[in-house]
Design goal:
Layout: H1 10-24, E1 28-33, H2 36-50, E2 57-60, E3 69-71, E4 84-90, H3 97-104, E5 107-117, H4 129-134, H5 147-158, E6 162-166, E7 171-174, H6 201-205, H7 210-219, E8 227-233, H8 239-252, E9 256-260, H9 268-280, E10 284-287, E11 293-296, E12 301-304, H10 307-315, E13 319-323, H11 330-335, E14 341-347, H12 357-361, H13 363-368, E15 372-378, H14 389-398, H15 407-410, E16 419-422, H16 425-430, H17 432-445, H18 451-459, E17 463-470, E18 473-484, H19 488-495, H20 504-512, E19 522-531, H21 540-552, E20 558-564, H22 567-575, E21 579-587, E22 594-601, H23 604-625, H24 634-642, H25 654-664, H26 674-685, H27 695-706, H28 711-717, H29 723-741, H30 744-751
Helix pairs in contact: 1-2, 3-14, 5-14, 7-8, 8-9, 22-24, 24-27, 25-29, 25-30, 26-27, 27-29, 28-29
Main location: cytoplasm
EC number: 2.3.1.193
Domain N-acetyltransferase: 440-553
Length: 754
């Protein structure tokens, strides 16, 4: 190893770290801190010292004019699935935690990650475009703190394998020499005996580790219907490659394989491996419109389908492969079980921030399904050796391995035993265990948590965190975003169609629902709420929301929430005092769900805002259910309407009552005046305790009266023996509504048919 003194000979430093990285098949990190132009010059010295060919170097920077491959920081995701020998990340402009995580993962074993930063002591105080995105109105960029970068700097100064060069002072703060943690080589891949093997031998020969070979063997279960395979791995372990080898093997035998993932780019490695294997087997027949539709001999096919459509497509295919499953909501994961055979592949720890979300939120439902489930786990890194310091640093710096307390420490937690506390960013930075537990719960609360969320938690002025702890351990957390309190110019900008960051409810109310005054009251939106999986359904979440309500009652006008609507979630928020004020009219591209907005007033101004939007919602929902929401799940519609705090009144004319009575108690027809049936049905669905209807009768109201589905489709969906039976059931469903809501004249009309 080359010994270095205080002279910042970056070329020699890079040569030494590159030699060490190659010898261990690990990676090393070099930080060049100081003036930006000096940093770029020093980065060129590092490339020379590392003796890396130009075509193996990438500069991630907003600057232009390099002879090397260049990627803008906001396009760092384009490096996913690629490997580079040396990557330079310019953190002087457009730097983000997401970009750091994505860039680090692209460096191959034996390679270098070079980070260009401002002077480390002053970096946390600098503000850039990322900070501007955190400064949501009414806050300014001066309100954003630099805690995330301060924590990042501290990890750079004490983590093994990190070299620090202070360009301004001309010194090497740390040389980054590191030879500890080098493990023995991973066991070679195992090729099963011919008698055991279902997939081609070539597929096993393409595996790079024994772990990958074992995962491929587990994926052979996809050749049989009624099976499910779960493949879990940290990032960089070859999970997607194994899935691609399995998909190619199935297609080579003539199978139709559907692949889905949160986005096409997430599935790129699956398709690359599948296509390569089919080519090696001589079974590749060609591609479709793009690289995500591969045809094979014997009618085999590997094709990408977006998550929303994958359940239906998988049901008609031979197998479904789901990559990055933890980044998809449970409702979609459940729909994938319609496929004859399905593989769920997911990252446990990676820049996606998936954590243990898949295991906690979906695994119990998979185990309850009528499936033979096979598990596989990949631990051996593919691109670099175990003990890699760059991997451990990114895990630490970005909290990719954050997790809640172990089950045993919180299993006895109850609403009565828990303590409510505010967790300020300073509290979190002062206690690493507290930070990791709280952020670990937030990761599990949502299917798309990313490193930028850590920066937001520590630095964004509009966010605040509240928690319940049990014996010092975090058992429930709520992340709150302050919204509203906007000035007239900002409100006018929203009303005219401009977007305002970080104010979801005021934005929807103003721009979509045409309420320019909606941005005046101050609210706190519950962005995420999570309870430890070991003590879920024990009342801790409700206790936390109750404490939040009590704390903010004097400081805010309302509490709000927006989420992908499901019956259980709508009921949970209704039980905690929140009322429905809006349903989105488009589905979320990833979750496939319509979003619900709900509010709980805390002041007269908040009550006025809630009441008028609840009233407007009731005024339009009947029409919307028959149009944009005609495919909304009937139980979601029931739960959303039951959660409206203002019950609708039927307000039927005497003539309309005669029509309704005639169709329910007599020989009349619903089609004579469907609007009357809709208004009476709305009165019931917004106050379902007032009259007794069975759930199937309420679904019948939603599907036929509100969503105007054809009678035969309604009868089939709700399991009526015939359309005539469904028609009679609708009339029967309106009898108790006539009894409860009918006027004296309506009741007199009813007596004519008794």
């Amino acid at each position: 190893m080359t010994e270095l003194g205080d002279d910042p000979d970056v070329e020699a430093l890079a040569a030494a770290r590159r030699e060490e990285a190659l010898a261990t098949n690990q990676r090393r990190l070099i930080v060049l801190a100081g003036d930006r132009d000096a940093g770029i010059d020093a980065a060129f010295d590092a490339v020379r010292g590392a003796d890396v060919p130009d075509d193996e170097v990438t500069f991630v920077t907003a600057r232009e004019g390099f002879r090397f491959h260049r990627v803008e920081p906001k396009r760092a995701s384009s490096l996913l699935g690629t490997t580079r020998s040396l990557v330079v990340l310019d953190a002087h402009e457009d730097f983000s935690a997401n970009a750091l995580g994505r860039v680090a993962g692209a460096v191959d074993g034996g390679g270098l990650l070079v980070l260009l930063t401002p002077a480390l002591d002053g970096w946390p105080a600098r503000r850039d475009s990322f900070d501007e995105r955190l400064a949501v109105p009414p806050f300014a960029v001066g309100d954003v703190t630099g805690r995330f970068r301060g924590r990042l700097v501290s990890t750079l100064r004490d983590h093994p394998g990190v070299a620090l060069v202070d360009l301004d002072s001309g010194t090497v703060e740390r040389d980054g020499a590191y030879r500890q943690g080098i493990s023995f080589d991973a066991a070679p891949p195992r090729v099963p005996r011919e008698v055991d093997r279902r997939f081609p031998r070539r597929a096993y020969e393409d595996c790079l580790t024994a772990d990958q070979s074992e995962a491929l063997a587990a994926l052979e279960a996809l050749t049989e219907p009624g099976t499910a395979v779960v493949v879990e791995a940290d990032r960089g372990r070859g999970k997607s490659s194994a899935a691609g080898l399995a998909a190619g093997s199935l297609a080579a035998e003539g199978a139709d394989v559907v692949v889905t993932a949160p986005g096409k780019r997430n599935a790129a490695e699956v398709f690359a491996r599948a296509e390569r294997l089919l080519s090696e087997l001589g079974a590749l027949r060609g591609g479709g419109a793009d690289d995500f539709d591969i045809a094979a001999d014997r009618g085999g096919r590997v094709r990408y389908v977006p998550p929303i459509e994958a359940g239906a497509a998988g049901a008609d295919a031979d197998a479904l492969v789901v990559d990055e499953a933890a980044a998809l909501p449970v409702r979609l994961l459940e729909s994938f079980l319609a496929a004859p055979a399905v593989a769920f592949c997911t990252t446990v720890r990676g820049y996606e921030g998936a954590g243990r979300g898949f295991a906690v939120r979906f695994r119990d439902r998979l185990d309850d399904a009528d499936r033979e489930v096979t598990d596989a786990r990949l631990d051996d890194p593919i691109r670099y050796a175990a003990g890699d310091p760059v991997e451990s640093w990114t895990f630490r710096a970005l909290l990719l391995d954050a997790r809640p307390p172990v089950d045993q420490l919180v299993a006895d937690a109850t609403p009565e035993s828990a303590s409510y506390r505010a967790l300020s960013p300073d509290d979190l930075l002062a206690d690493e265990h507290l930070l990791r537990e709280a952020f670990g719960l937030l990761v599990l609360a949502h299917y798309r948590t990313e490193p930028d969320d850590l920066a937001r938690l520590l630095d964004a002025p509009n966010l605040t965190l509240r928690a319940l702890t049990h014996e010092g351990r975090v058992v429930s957390v709520a992340l709150l975003a302050r919204e509203g309190g906007l000035d007239a110019d900002t409100r006018r900008h929203m009303y005219d169609g401009g977007r305002v960051r970080g104010n979801m409810l005021p934005d929807v109310f103003t721009s979509q629902l045409r309420d320019e005054a909606a941005g005046v009251p101050v609210g706190y939106r519950v962005m995420r709420i999570a309870t430890h999986h070991a003590v879920r359904s024990s009342g801790l979440g409700s206790r936390l929301l109750s404490e939040v309500r009590d704390e903010f009652a004097g400081d805010a006008d309302y509490l709000g929430v927006g989420f992908g609507a499901t019956p259980d979630l709508l009921s949970f928020w209704r039980d905690n005092g929140y009322g429905t004020v809006h349903l989105s009219t488009t589905r979320n591209d990833t979750s496939g769900e319509y979003s619900a907005l709900m509010m709980r007033p805390l002041s007269p101004a908040g009550r006025d805002l809630r009441d008028r939007h609840a009233r407007w919602f009731l005024g339009r929902v009947g029409d919307v259910l028959g149009d944009a929401l005609s495919d909304l799940d009937a139980d979601v519609a029931r739960a959303a309407l039951a959660a409206v705090d203002t019950a609708a009144e039927p307000d039927l004319s005497e003539y309309e009552w005669r029509v309704v009575v005639g169709a329910s108690y007599g020989p009349g027809l619903y089609t004579t005046a469907p609007g009357a049936f809709r208004r009476l049905g709305l009165a019931h669905l917004t106050n379902p305790d007032r009259a007794s209807l069975a759930p199937r009768e309420e679904r019948l109201l939603v599907r036929k009266v509100f969503q105007t589905h054809p009678w035969d489709a309604v009868a089939d969906e709700l399991d009526f023996h015939s359309t005539a039976g469904a028609m009679r059931a609708l009339g029967d469903a309106y009898e108790p509504l006539v009894d409860e809501y009918g006027t004296d004249a309506a009741h007199a009309e009813r007596e004519r048919f008794r």
